[in-house]
Amino acid sequence: MSENRTNGLRRGARFAGIGAAATVAIGLFSTGAANADTFVPLPDGQKLGPDGVVITRTGEHAVVSPSLAANGAGRTVWVSGNAIAEVPNAPETTAGPWNGPTNAPGTNNSSTHGTSIVSTGYIVGCQVNIASDAISAGVSGGVSLTNANLGGSIGLKLGPGDVKFVQIDSKDITKPGTYSVEYQDAEIQIQGCAGYAQARAYTVVEVVGNNYSKTTLYGQPFSIG
Known about the structure:
By secondary structure, the chain is mainly β. 4% of the residues lie in helices and 47% in strands.
């Protein structure tokens, strides 16, 4: 089995899945500071899919900062983690032209473009509880997608009730093997949300061919303030 890994600092993410329902522990980098950054550790997760597909997320955490404008409608979160996709039976393929996600209802931020793919990112909502049923309802309703600009910060404009998928990174799966996407301190800036905001990781593995399948691992939702 071949191994394909993306190491080092990468501003990338993937379709993530919830493993265990654990209580999020929250700590302040500077105890007692009114506007201190908040460190949010998040649990590991794993999802088994058809035809031997296994998605695992480890080392996920977030750092939430209030807006420097101090207007209550903006905040910034830095997310880190490692998503691993085991695809022992993926067909050998060659990637064609990359046209990007179609953002069509039900596509969940994926595009085949001739080869299998693993994608990871975050679902971000304003005054919305991002539970599993809310995600399904949002996707089928055509939730908008914001592509990440690798190496820079991702800016989101969110109003009350808005939910957006933020793709941080993806990797083509051209043959059977283990594929890893590691991201550290990927920055997401949120503006326009005067109420509470939530985020949740996602990782999607889409396997093309005669035994087409799509497996999604969601992470634990956490508050962005």
